[in-house]
Amino acid sequence: MSKINIATIFDRNYLIRALAFHEAISKFKNEYVFWFLCLDKDTKEILEKLSLNNVIAMSVEEIGDEELLKTRSSRSTGEFAFTSKPSWINYIFNKIKDGDTLIYADNDIIYFAPPENILERMIKNGHSIGVTPHKFSEKKDWMNEKIGKYNAGLIYFISDQNSRLCVNEWRKQCIDWCYLKYDNGRFGDQLYMNKWPEKYKGIYEIPDKGVNLGSWNIYNFKITERGGNFFVDEEPLVCYHFHRIKFYIAGNKIKPLPIYIYHKKLYNMYTDMIEKGWGKMLAFNKDWNYGFAEKPGVLRLIKQNLTRFLRKINRNGPEE
Length: 320
Known about the structure:
The protein is α/β, with parallel strands linked by helices. The protein contains ten helices and 17 strands. A seven-stranded mixed sheet has the order 3-2-1-4-7-6-10, sandwiched between helices. It has a three-stranded mixed sheet with strand order 5-15-11. A three-stranded antiparallel sheet has the order 12-13-14, with no helix packed on it. α1 crosses α9 and α4 packs antiparallel against α7.
C-alpha cells in the first residue's frame, strides 16, 4: 500500500488536540502524510516551528478556493470548519494520484490501532469511500434522519473517479449551505452523507464496533481492557472519537469536566495526551490557554459528577 494521507482541520483552540492526534497515530508508522488545514495564522506559524514529522500545514487562503473563502463571514467558526472539509479533501485529491489513500479525521480522534486494515479491506473489495455509521441506540434512531446516519468526522477514501465525484459535489453542497442546525433534510456537512449510498458506487459502511467509537454509542457496547488494549464487545478498539470533551487548567494540571467522561480509563489516557501537548505549547507561550474551559467551581463539579453517575447507571454504562 502506498503512503496513507491523513487530513484534518483546526484552529488554535484545537492545536493541542492535533498534537495528541499526530503523536498517537505516528507511533504505528513514520510514513503517514499529514495534511493540516489551519484556520488561523497562529496555528500555522506554531506548526512550522514545531516541525512535526510528515506534516503539510496550509492556511485556508493557500488552497485557493475563492468560493469557500466567501462563506467565511456568514458562518460560525465551527460551521466554517465543516464547510472547509470537502474543499480541503478536494484540494488533496488534486495533489495525489488515483489509487492513493486518504483518511479525513477530526483531530479529537485518537487511534489505538493502525488504520491500514480498513483501507486494505476497501481496496480488496473495490470500495472507494468508507463511512462510519453512528450506531445510535434504538431510542435515538430518529437522530439518523435529523443529525445523520454517518459521522462526518471520520471518512476513508481511495482516490478514484467515484470518490472525486462525491467530494466535488459535497463541496458544492457545503458552500451553498452548511450550518449547525437542521433545515429540510440538511444538518451541517453531515446529513448530506445519508444519500451517498444511493448516489455513488463503492460506498463501504464500516461495520467494526471499534472504529469511530464515541460518546453517542459507547453505552451500546461492553468495553474491556486486557494487556493495555481496549476491546468493544471483544472487537479491538481502533479509534475513539473524544467528541465535545472540555478540559480546564487546575494549577499545573489538565483536567476534564466530569460530564464529558464516558469511560474513566479511556478519558484518563486522553487527558494525559492533552497534558503532554499543553507542555509542548508552554515552551512557545508560557501563558498558553487556548481551547480550555473556565475552571469550574466546587458545586458545578459535584453536580457534573452526579449527573455522570446517574447517566452511567441509567444506561448500564461500560465497565471502567
